[in-house]
Amino acid sequence: MHTDVKVLFANLWQDYVAVTPSAKQVHQLLGSSQQDDVINDHIALRTFNLEKVGLEKLAAHFKALGYEECGEYHFEAKKLYAKHYEHPDRSLPKVFISELLLDKCSAYLRDTITALVEQIPAEAVTADNFLYSGTHWQVSQATYEKLLAESEYAAWVSAWGYRANHFTVSVNDLHSFDSLEQVNNALKEAGFLLNMSGGEIKGTPQVYLEQSSTLADLHQVQFSDVVATIPSCFYEFARRYAVADGLLYTGFVAASADKIFESTNAR
Predict the structure, then answer these.
(1) Helix (H, G, I), strand (E, B) or coil at 92
(2) Which of 76, 184, 207, 248 is the most exposed place for a label (fewest CB within 10 A)?
(3) Mean pLDDT score, 98-105
(4) What digits encode the pLDDT tens for the residues 15-40?
(5) Counting beta carbons within 10 angstroms of the beta carbon of residue 18, is it exposed (0 to 12), middle (13 to 18) or buried (19 or more)?
(6) What does the domain layout of the chain look like in residue ranges?
(7) In Å, how far are 84, 168, 179, 206, 256 from 202, measured between CA atoms?
(8) Do the beta carbons of residue 134 and residue 162 sit within 8 Å?
């Protein structure tokens, strides 16, 4: 396990931009030249509800650094369960971890994923680099496509493994933009494609959180038989609103997160 939270996030970022080159362009587009105001609101990680790699196994890496469990979320249609974690130092990013409920999936998907996870050495899951270690297996393109037909989420993890699925710009901390609409317009003018599922902006000030996201980059992946270009990771943008005590809302909105998951869907 890492002992330095900033090193962990720096390593997660380097791994993420390697398969999401547009992230650096977004950074340059939104950041102010005077100060580093592109602050990470949260990252998201994906896994399966298998004992070896379940949500809690990923969360342990953050809990060891002082993170605390703060909320849970259910996504019935996508067969997902999720929790989010926060650090007492509110300047550190929040962490959103989800897991696919294999008992709700087909026997084919369950058996395929179980066989992949069996290939991960037990000690790898607690190693410093596990959260940005990628795949510990190889899948064929046909297996990926068959998983994709049932669960985009399962197919994505089969292809990309363990890494940040997205980072998130905190719109509240940007100096050059006052609203999520302004951020979205700048992104579109620069040629970025946004996730339109559930509308360009998911959420409202009434639920204290507005979110938007790019569509995932298309990036090459090495399958066991061929190299193919598929959706990799994306960049999210979050604007938070103050709740009754005047502090910004720090949770997530399941109805909005449900649509954000679709940023990695095929274009």
Answers:
(1) coil
(2) 76
(3) 98
(4) 999 999 999 999 999 986 666 789 99
(5) middle
(6) 5-264
(7) 18, 14, 13, 12, 5
(8) yes
CA distance 213 to 198: 11
3-state helix, strand, coil in the chain (%, to 5): 40, 25, 40
pLDDT (0 to 100) of residue 246: 87
**CB-based burial, 125-148: b 16+ in 10 Å, e otherwise:** beeeebbbbebbeebebebbebbb
d(CA 265, CA 83): 22
- Nearest Cα to 46, choosing from 256, 267, 266, 264? 264
Residues 6+ apart with CB under 8 A from 200: 184, 194, 212
- Identity of the amino acid at 145: E
- pLDDT for the residue 36: 72
Measured CA to CA, the distance from residue 159 to residue 53 in angstroms comes to: 16
pTM of the model: 0.96
Angstrom distance (rounded) from CA 74 to CA 79: 8
Which residues have C-beta within 8 Å of that of residue 188, sequence separation ≥ 6?
194
Q: Sign (positive/negative) of CA torsion 51, 266, 16, 255?
A: negative
What pLDDT digit, counting tens, does each position of 61-93 carry?
999 999 999 999 999 999 999 999 999 999 999
- Cα–Cα dist 78/81, whole Å: 9
Q: For residue 186, what are its two tokens?
A: 């700048």
Looking at 3.30.565.10, 3.10.180.50, 1.10.10.10, 3.40.50.1110, the CATH number of the domain 5-264 comes to: 3.10.180.50
